[in-house]
Amino acid sequence: MTKSELIAHLAGANPHLRQPDVELIVSTIFEEITAALARGDRVELRGFGAFSIKARDPRTGRNPRTGETVEVSAKSVPYFKPGKELRERINKGATPPARRAPARATA
């Protein structure tokens, strides 16, 4: 689901709100989560999950095209840990993806 699809869905589910108002609400929520992470804060949404920042140490990488070694600097990356309720709702009634049988050799 894209951001515009989310806004359209929420606007349709809440006819008392105008679409521009829903768009402002969704954008404000995303901006506040982004700003909190940029400050180094953790954002927890009960029943949904928690957003945090993880630090990655500097390392030596490899350019896949040339095979040349490249120094990759330290950086921070966003991390999301789903909450228990979200995991349960996703797995409730969910069927695992079908597995393909291995190809058999024919003689």
TrEMBL record:
The source's domain of life comes to Bacteria
Q: Record's GO cellular component, any one?
A: cytosol
Q: Where are the compositionally biased (Low complexity) regions?
A: 94-107
One GO BP annotation of this record: regulation of translation
GO function terms (MF aspect) = DNA binding; structural constituent of chromatin
State the UniProt keywords alphabetically. Answer: DNA recombination, DNA-binding, Transcription, Transcription regulation, Translation regulation
Signal peptide, first to last residue:
none
Chain intervals for the UniProt region annotation (Disordered): 84-107
For this protein, the record's SUPFAM superfamilies field holds: IHF-like DNA-binding proteins
What function does the entry list?
A: This protein is one of the two subunits of integration host factor, a specific DNA-binding protein that functions in genetic recombination as well as in transcriptional and translational control.
Matching PANTHER family: DNA-BINDING PROTEIN HU, INTEGRATION HOST FACTOR SUBUNIT BETA
Self-association state and partner proteins as the record states: Heterodimer of an alpha and a beta chain.
Family to which the UniProt record says this protein belongs: Belongs to the bacterial histone-like protein family.
The protein's name in its UniProt record: Integration host factor subunit beta
Which species does the entry assign this protein to? Neoroseomonas oryzicola
